[in-house]
Amino acid sequence: MNMQNLMAQAQRMQREITAKKEELEKMEFVGKSEWIEMTFNGARQILNVKIIKDGDIEDEDKEILEDMIQIATKDAFIQINNAMNDKLGQYAGALDGLM
Hints:
Layout: H1 3-26, E1 28-32, E2 36-41, E3 46-51, H2 62-96
Antiparallel strand pairs: 1-2, 2-3
Helix pairs in contact: 1-2
């Protein structure tokens, strides 16, 4: 493969990766726990936080609520990572030959 073809292939791949990243950043991911539902975009920005627990939250429940926020955040980030792997995983091996 000559250098010109290699450069064209690398540029094409870069455009594809950029397009897929932009697509992912626009997607929404909802992380849930028993008490919390959090919505993030693919850039890991919080779009919405909703408390879905019925009734009042007692003072002693604040620590549980903090844990539920952490669980919902982790759930959404796992979804984002899986989506990134699905969309961009095909490029991981291809980049080895270009480095």
